[in-house]
Fold this protein.
Amino acid sequence: MLEAVDLRCERGARTLFRGLGFRLRGGELLRVTGANGTGKTSLLRIVCGLLAPAQGEVRWHGGDIRVLREEFWGRLVYIGHANAIKDDLTAAENLAVSCTLGGSSADDAQVRAALRQLGLAGCEDLPVRALSQGQRRRVALARLVPSGAVPLWVLDEPFTALDAAAVDVVQQLISGHVAGGGAVFYTTHLEASIAAAVSLCIDLDRGAG
Amino acid sequence: MKGNINWFKYSSPQTFYPLAGTLAPWFGALAAVFGAAGLYIGFFVAPTDYQQGEAYRIIFIHVPAAWMSMFLYLVMAFWAGAGLMFNTRLSGMMASALAPTGALFTFIALWTGSLWGKPMWGTYWVWDARLTSELILLFLYFGFMALQAAIDDARRADRAGAVLALVGVVNVPVIYFSVQWWNTLHQGASVSLTKAPTMAATMFAGMIVMAFGFWFYSIAVTLLRVRCIVLERERNSEWVTEYARDFR
Amino acid sequence: MLAVLRCVIRRDLLLAARRRSDVLTVLLFFVIVVSLFPLGAGPEPALLRTIAPGVIWVAALLASMLALNRLFAQDHADGTLEQMLLSATPLGLIVAAKVLAHWLVSGLPLVLMAPVLALQFDLPLPYFGVLVLSLALGTPVLSLIGAIGAALTLGVRGGGALLALLVLPLYVPVLIIGAGAVEAMASGLGAQAYLLLLAAFLVVAAAFAPWVAAVALRISVE
């Protein structure tokens, strides 16, 4: 359902990658690896439509995402490097806001259940300022729980700052989503083991794979 | 169809660079010829004004400069808008190359205007509608240049500048009319340029010739400046590397 | 879609409520700037009455500009802005919702504070209505135009001063017409034409500025 053709990315005067293409179907998992500065995050931002590629295009069910715009964004969950949460709001408020913004409205009970699933029981009504780095990451990732119906997940380094237990939970969420016919596109430099029928990999160190 | 191909051929910085280099001296020469002719008409041919004496002769600089300041803003916004719409690199470079010249003419118009104001109105500055909107136009130019200078990424600088230039173009008439309305409310009809005694044909001719001189000058320096910008932005491309090697 | 807009407005108001000091700082700035003018220009009541509308308007202009930095900067820093850019709701509407919330916490207090400051300048009571109305119509226009500037200067070095340079020239018509409304009433002309013009500015700005700011945001975040 997601397809990239002949992508070239330039940041500043540097070309990060060129001629990159892939095809991602429902039920598939795509992992992007590469050293720092090889353009992992840029690739993710191109795939989301935040960044325009210097050449080539990304297609969603055959249509250019820069034309589809809102129609495509409604089918996408993007969790970036930044957690997109506010220090002054509580964990539950943050999650409710990010779910609503993402178009998957979750009621209070669902929000609390999602936070508990990520191991944040007891922290729901604390201001996020009081939480640790890993706990904040969990708040951001808790958005995946009520987003099962959204077909495409794009995750930038989902496992950073997480402890082993949380990594397990997130891996289960991802493999559950893939098993249900969704597609996941993510970057990591960890060797994570996620159960999936089809698992693709793009290694930016070696060019498109 | 053939024209189409040529158009896009020259919209690439690589092909435009030598073309600009060839054209710039010619426009420079035209600017010198028209400028000299305009000054000659202004100083020697045009009659002395019976009301204002010799001091009025500054309008041969002032009026064409004011025309150019507004015209160049429109041209700049046109290029900026074209760059935003068609995503051509050269358009953005043209816009940023035009801005300093536009600001220069705006400044000249303000400066000569205040010099002319002293003998005419007895003061260097009045909050006349034209002077005030010209001053705001200068701020708009400065804002455009400052925004472009503050952004490191050339593509973002071009596109952000384009949005600002277009917003400015929409605003210029609003600013002009609101200032004019405000001005008439405050001062009543004082001495205004439009109410100057009917202009002699030679005076008008002098201003037109001078305006052409300024126009050719603008084209010449813009082309030269575009060449610098092209080299700066494309410094990592092959053709610039080769070009630099030829220089050594 | 409405749920998203309601959520954005509610969130911004909630954030402002938890950070009351930000709101108060802008209001205090407004009060202090206005209070400086009598000290600088002298305490003659006749003079103060003449300059009152202009002073209050200029101070409101500066204060609302001071608050602009906050409009997108924090959302940009913590990544929320990217989520807004990737929302299925058109970005222009989200921007409009944010501007509305921003005006409620930074513009509306200025409007409500203005009559108190007008007392300091010995402005006659009948003018208060026009002053408040002109500010109520004009300050949202300032927020809307300012949103474009804030979006363009997002994450740019020297952002604050640059924002002023970009936005203040564009504020000129609002300043002239807004302060003019009170002056026109003082000179017996009636303020209606001015207020209608301000309302027209507001309609046009509300219709276009959020979309321009949305384009600018996409450029800045790229």
